[in-house]
Design brief:
The complex is a heterodimer of chains A (114) and B (121). Chain A has 114 residues and is an all-beta fold. Helices cover 0% and strands 49% of the residues of chain A. Chain A contains no helices and 12 strands. In chain A, a hairpin with a 2-residue loop joins β9 (68-73) and β10. The N and C termini of chain A lie far apart (36 Å). In chain B, strands 2, 4, 5, 6, 9, 10 and 11 form a 7-stranded mixed beta sheet that branches. Chain B has 121 residues and is mainly β. Helices cover 0% and strands 50% of the residues of chain B. Chain B contains no helices and 11 strands. The radius of gyration of chain B is 13 Å and the shape is globular. The chains are: A mainly beta (114), B mainly beta (121).
Chain lengths: 114, 121
């Protein structure tokens, strides 16, 4: 199974500053046949189900503010929030959905305001 | 509008069984793979199982393989998770989720609110 490891486990960032969350997979999630990275990012606020933010490693879901961006390829990925807003306080998860299940999640990164 | 509504959670003793349901609406149910994801209280997300649109292909996490069975009723737009030989570590909020596209290997774009399973004596 592919193991997903996020860093850091928690992060405190000042309002308006940049937040960066990393995700590393134990094997490549880049499918050479279509050159797509099978990697998604989710945001989960307390008492709510997860919300899809980014898929194919860098494609923003409809309605997601453009301050959220995803980057990376192969085994190393990053979620960046360019200017942190109060409503971005949440736990963020990466997930690989590379071809064959199980489609594992990272352990999560808790983002707070400094 | 896509809607997923889980039910069937509750308190069950270790070794017991429970069947969860996920009622779907707002899309062509039989076209989409559906996934169960769980979240223990205060902890992270764990992928549990997925079933193809036709129901012909199923996959499980190692932690539940042989104990849980995923199935679907495409006539009534309902997904099931039969959970047997339950353990304390199965205690979690169970979500059903649908991919953005029909294939199994897809990001999960739609989620229900979850149903809570508590395994305790």
């Amino acid at each position: 199974d592919i193991v997903m490891t996020q860093s850091p486990d928690s992060l405190a960032v000042s309002l308006g500053e940049r937040a960066t969350i990393n995700c590393k997979s134990s094997q490549s999630v880049l499918y050479n046949s279509n050159n797509k990275n099978y990697l998604a990012w989710y945001q989960q606020k307390p008492g709510q189900p997860p919300k899809l933010l980014i898929y194919w490693a860098s494609t923003r879901e409809s309605g997601v503010p453009d301050r959220f961006s995803g980057s990376g390829s192969g085994t190393d990925f990053t979620l960046t929030i360019s200017s942190l807003q109060a409503e971005d306080v949440a736990v963020y998860y990466c997930q690989q959905y590379y071809i064959t299940p199980p489609f594992t999640f990272g352990q999560g990164t808790k983002l707070e305001i400094k | 509008e896509v809607q997923l509504v889980e039910s069937g959670g509750g308190l069950v003793q270790p070794g017991g069984s429970l069947r969860l349901s996920c009622a779907a609406s707002g899309f062509t149910f039989s076209s989409y793979a559906i996934t169960w994801v769980r979240q223990p209280p205060g902890k992270g997300l764990e992928w549990v199982s997925v079933i193809s649109g036709s129901g012909g292909t199923t996959n499980y996490a190692d932690s539940v393989k042989g104990r849980f069975t995923i199935s679907r009723d495409n006539s009534n737009n309902i997904l099931y998770l039969q959970m047997n030989s339950l353990r304390a570590e199965d205690t979690a909020l169970y979500y059903c989720a649908r991919g953005k596209v029909v294939v199994t290997a897809a990001p999960l774009g739609y989620w229900g609110q979850g149903t809570l399973v508590t395994v305790s004596s």
